[in-house]
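User: Hi! I have a protein structure encoded as tokens and I'd like to know what sequence might fold into it. I'm fairly new to this, so please keep things simple.
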């Protein structure tokens, strides 16, 4: 009996050829698994294509809801943006796909799983490491990396020779992966890091030129760090994300263009569109600013970095991630409230926020009447904050500086007068920005 292998099947050329190749060249019984994470595939024809290509069974699963609720929400609560920018759409999708590959393999008694990653990217790491964590007994094969080395032309020729059901569209100028949390675009002309991404790279977002001239104001309600309403509507979870992708995309929000440090050591130019993720991260951050105490807010930014790195590197199913999740979750207890966002010409700007847990107190912050801040307390406070600095200056010498006033290149004479502090004439009018007129008198 041939061994069973469960292949993550997208319906594209690579994985369709892989079905046949795994059967004929490696002698497997191939089971195809297609997962919808929101890239709107037409699932029925994909399933049929897998079967026609030779798969003995073809599963198609809609995993959009668990993707948003179990993978994207934790990343949002954590504030996870890789290199401070990438909301990790592809990186969050991979562990879910790996988990389903393992679950189907277990149910089917398969001993192998397979995926369509190449040997150059992060995705192979994510699939392989996730599988190791969930089912270390399973063996993993990535045909494009592990032996099925064919160019696109060879794949097309192979598919024709074997009568595989492919519809050959003109080759996409880019390599694209998309799900509800974002669309990743790479390769082709984008490999020129100086080149402005051509408009045909974008599918979800308007260019600044094409975005509506008038701004749109949005209100997002959060409960414990999770968005629960958009404009007080009843959309929730994946529907809310889909709607926000639509509206944000219309206004051109959520385009990202970056040089990314891949886990495999390569720098690569990556372009993303992720309107919902970018808007939600901005809104969530704004709410945290309001309700988290300063210490927690500061510490959480390092947790966010760690979390993002971990997700990016394919370490979702680790105790480290669970430990960070526990911390993050405990910070979200009071992250409940409302944030106003203005979408306009490619920007998503926070313009207001409120929460019943707000730590912002106008009577302490105000510069107007009703100020309850104790100004005199500041004097003692500063005395103690400055104490070690003063001590060090007295004992070990004053701070090292490069003088600004003594450098003749930086000053010009402007006539008689004297410095407020009593310097001799003529008054030197400093040409250095920042130390000019307010310190000098004519
Ligand atoms: N660079 C991104 C990441 O590592 C996106 C990868 C996109 N994958 C693809 N097959 N185009 O998460």
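Assistant: Happy to help. Inverse folding works backwards from shape to sequence: for each of the 442 positions I chose a residue that suits the local structure. Here it is:
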């Amino acid at each position: 009996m041939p061994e069973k292998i469960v292949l993550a099947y997208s319906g594209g050329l690579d994985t369709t050829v892989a079905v046949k190749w795994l059967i004929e060249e490696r002698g497997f019984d191939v089971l195809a698994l297609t997962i919808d994470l929101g890239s709107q595939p037409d699932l029925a024809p994909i399933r049929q294509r897998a079967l026609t290509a030779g798969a003995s069974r073809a599963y198609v699963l809609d995993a959009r809801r668990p993707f948003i609720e179990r993978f994207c929400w934790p990343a949002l609560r954590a504030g996870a943006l890789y290199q401070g920018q990438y909301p990790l759409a592809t990186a969050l999708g991979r562990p879910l796909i790996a988990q389903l590959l393992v679950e189907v393999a277990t149910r089917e008694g398969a001993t192998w799983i397979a995926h369509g990653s190449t040997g150059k990217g992060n995705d192979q790491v994510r699939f392989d490491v996730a599988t190791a964590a969930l089912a270390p007994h399973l063996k993993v094969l990535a045909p494009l990396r592990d032996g099925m080395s064919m160019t696109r032309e060879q794949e097309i020729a192979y598919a024709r020779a074997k009568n595989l059901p492919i519809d050959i569209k003109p080759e996409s100028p880019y390599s694209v992966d998309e799900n509800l949390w974002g669309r990743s675009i790479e390769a082709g002309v984008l490999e020129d890091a100086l080149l402005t991404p051509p408009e045909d790279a974008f599918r979800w977002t308007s260019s600044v030129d094409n975005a509506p001239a008038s701004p749109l104001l949005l209100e997002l309600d959060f409960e414990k760090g999770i968005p629960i309403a958009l404009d007080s509507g009843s959309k929730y979870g994946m529907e809310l994300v889909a709607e926000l992708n639509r509206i944000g995309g219309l206004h051109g929000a959520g385009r990202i263009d970056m040089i990314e440090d891949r886990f495999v050591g390569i720098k690569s130019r990556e372009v993303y569109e992720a309107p919902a993720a970018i808007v939600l991260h901005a809104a969530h951050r704004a709410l945290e600013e309001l309700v988290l105490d300063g210490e927690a807010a500061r510490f959480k930014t390092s947790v966010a970095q760690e979390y993002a790195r971990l997700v990016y590197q394919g370490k979702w199913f680790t105790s480290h991630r669970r430990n960070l999740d526990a911390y993050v979750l405990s910070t979200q207890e009071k992250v409940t409230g409302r944030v106003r966002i203005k979408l306009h010409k490619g920007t998503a700007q926070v313009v207001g926020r409120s929460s019943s847990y707000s730590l912002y107190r106008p009577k302490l912050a105000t510069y107007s009447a009703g100020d309850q801040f104790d100004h005199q307390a500041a004097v003692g406070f500063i005395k103690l904050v400055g104490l070690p600095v003063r001590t060090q200056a007295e004992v070990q010498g004053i701070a090292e500086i490069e003088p600004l006033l003594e450098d003749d290149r930086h000053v010009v004479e402007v006539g008689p007068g004297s410095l407020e502090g009593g310097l001799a004439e003529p008054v030197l009018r400093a040409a250095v920005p920042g130390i000019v007129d307010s310190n000098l008198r004519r």
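A useful reference point when you look it over: The CA atoms of residues 310 and 320 lie 8 Å apart. Feel free to ask if any position seems puzzling.
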